[in-house]
TrEMBL record:
This is Pirin. Keywords: Iron, Metal-binding. It comes from Triparma columacea. The keyword Metal-binding applies. InterPro entries: Pirin, Pirin_C_dom, Pirin_N_dom, RmlC-like_jellyroll, RmlC_Cupin_sf.
Length: 346
């Protein structure tokens, strides 16, 4: 399927495949998580499948690195940012600075790993009387060399504060990150590549019911990269070209992008864009730096300091089933609608 269906806007196209998906600078990594978790027990656990590193995309759900509760127990990062944009389900966050939170159902969590942080991301099955479907994107955004060793920081953008455009035909564009026709997303962490709006970093989630369309203007950054992921649906129209398979496409960010659904059922897209950092990228596991020597130093630093250690009683820490959505930073707890997005330095 590679390069089938090129148009003036589509520079290349291929089958989407299984995650992680291809990305372009300034992005490093993109995964679409979709898991049909069953009802949980009183401990929010799932019936175990897999063998401790469960990434079977043919199964109805995955345990990932979780043993009883699915998710990713404590692990380190350095040199980049994680953007976790949710649609359904719940995620419990804990980190090496003692901060934590529960978010999901449209919330966005943004973490600058900077010089080093350890965090856990678990997916507790909080519903005991019904299923616990979980859908979200995790996206890694690179940091330039001058900011790779900044202090870690954290922002929670509650769904109530995430801007959306809803057209009369039912098309919806969720502005997780960036600008769209004069509308702006909530601020990124201060050291992010996205904090400079001239880099025009964008994360757009588009849902199209039958017979609907949406247009995304050209990027304001003259050298921006733009990629598209058709993640759901049996038909999508990209720049006038019909696709009946899930695709990954590299687009010309200098041209307007029109997305349509002329088929049956709902189609969903993710669009990533941004000016490139244009620096060497050396990645090894959870660390992303500019040189191999810096990667080796990251491993040494983690072995010696554990990036502050792990203050939680369990590696796969989760909060009580009735806790609800919250963010805890520097000894202060915030919740949706209580005056802000919840942010702080880790």
């Amino acid at each position: 399927m590679t390069n089938r269906g090129l148009t003036n806007t589509i520079l290349s196209v291929s089958a989407l495949g299984t995650p992680p998906y291809q990305t372009l600078d300034p992005f490093l990594f993109c995964v679409y998580h979709k898991d049909a978790y069953p009802a949980g027990n009183p401990s929010m656990e799932a019936p175990r499948i897999g063998n401790g590193a469960d990434f079977d995309h043919s199964a109805p759900y995955r345990m990932y690195h979780g043993s009883k509760i699915p998710g990713f127990p404590q692990h380190p990062h350095r040199g980049f940012e994680t953007i976790t944009a949710t649609m359904e389900g719940i995620i419990d966050h804990t980190d090496s600075k003692g901060n934590g939170g529960r978010y999901g159902d449209g919330d966005l969590q943004w973490m600058t790993a900077g010089k080093g942080v350890v965090h856990g991301e678990m997916f507790p099955l909080v519903n005991q009387d019904r299923g616990n479907p979980t859908r979200f994107f995790q996206i890694w955004l690179n940091l330039p060399a001058s900011r790779k060793m900044v202090e870690p920081s954290f922002k929670m953008h509650w769904s109530e504060d995430v801007n959306k455009v809803v057209r009369e035909d039912g098309a919806t564009l969720t502005l997780f990150v960036g600008d769209y026709k004069g509308m702006k997303s909530s601020d990124s962490p201060p050291d992010s590549w996205a904090s400079d709006r001239s880099n025009d970093v964008g994360v757009f989630y588009v849902t199209l019911p039958e017979g609907s369309k949406v247009k995304i203007p050209p990027s304001s950054a003259p050298d921006a990269n733009r990629t598209l992921y058709m993640i759901e649906g049996s038909q999508g129209v990209v720049d006038g070209r019909v696709f009946e398979d899930k695709i990954y496409a590299v687009l010309d960010a200098g041209k307007e992008l029109e997305l349509r659904n002329d088929g049956v059922g709902k189609t969903e897209f993710l669009v990533l864009q941004g000016a490139p950092i244009s620096e060497p990228v050396v990645q090894h596991g959870p660390f992303v730096m500019n040189t191999s020597q810096e990667i080796q130093q990251a491993f040494r630093d983690y072995q010696q300091t554990r990036f502050g250690g792990w203050p939680w009683e369990m590696d796969d820490m989760v909060f009580p089933v009735d806790k609800g959505r919250f963010a805890f930073f520097d000894g202060k707890e915030t919740r949706p609608g209580q005056g802000g997005s919840g942010s702080g330095e880790l």
